[in-house]
Amino acid sequence: MWTALVIASVVFLYIGLPLIYRIYACWILKSKAVKSNALVLTFDDGPSNRLTPAIMDLLDQYKAKAAFFLLGKHIPGREKIVKQIQERGHEICSHGYDHLNYLKVSPWRALADIRRGWKAIDAALGHKRERYPFRPPYGKLNIVCLLYLLARRVPIVYWTKDSGDTSKSKPENQKIELLTANAQGTVPLAHDFKRSDERTEHLILESIQLALERTQENGMRIMTVSELLNSRK
């Protein structure tokens, strides 16, 4: 009985507490986005040679900024794109290095993946910051990683809406919904990694444009992750 209780307690601490934190963080994120009437565009798993610059060109047309959660293993060879993200005023964030599920690897490997992702960004930008807003791969953390990030005061950024841009079940002619039809705040999860199908990339760009147009029509604000998290609303 005591063994089972100890095991249950360990499991709750290792998995349960990070899950509770995620629920709370998502609630805060949604609350701030709604109160600010804001769209916060976020892109995971880049950079890519074609889609990432195309997204930035589109954002420039609307004078909009976004957050790019870079995957460390996709940075080598694309350092110029990382620098362009920064130079064009977008927010550089981290998505780790190897896109690991931190509940399926040891906590030490997970920690190493977080730090390696930061170092890859630093190497591309030519400085030593060693700390960027972080989005856990698959949205999952273990207690060791959670405490590490909190201790370092690293913003942990989730999302309020999945755009569905990685879904294989979506019809090709269906726009990916990045923004709800009614005017309310949202932090959508989208991706800018390399696609094998150019039609998918075109669909993503069309959907971003639709989101930006709706934002303007509904009188919403376009904010960065840091602007939203630092808002007092």
Order of helices and strands: HEEHEHEHHEEHEH
- First-residue to last-residue Cα separation: 47 Å
Kindly report the name of the CATH homologous superfamily: Glycoside hydrolase/deacetylase
Tell me the Rg in angstroms. 18 Å
Helical content, roughly? 40-55%
**Assigned CATH architecture:** Alpha-Beta Barrel
Count of spatially separate domains: 1
Which fold does the CATH topology refer to? TIM Barrel
Structural class call reads: alpha/beta
Tell me the number of strands: 7
What form results from the Cα inertia axes? globular
Major sheet: order of its strands? Answer: 4-3-2-6-5
Average pLDDT level: 89
The fraction of residues in strands falls at 5-15%
Helix segment tally: 7
Give structural notes.
It contains 7 helices and 7 strands, in the order αββαβαβααββαβα. With 233 residues, it is of the alpha/beta class. It has one domain (19-230): TIM Barrel, CATH 3.20.20. The strands form 2 sheets. It has a 5-stranded parallel sheet. It has a two-stranded parallel ribbon with strand order 1-7. Helix 3 (79-87) links the parallel strand 3 and strand 4 (91-94). Helix 2 packs parallel to helix 6 and helix 3 (79-87) crosses helix 4 (107-125). The mean pLDDT is 89.
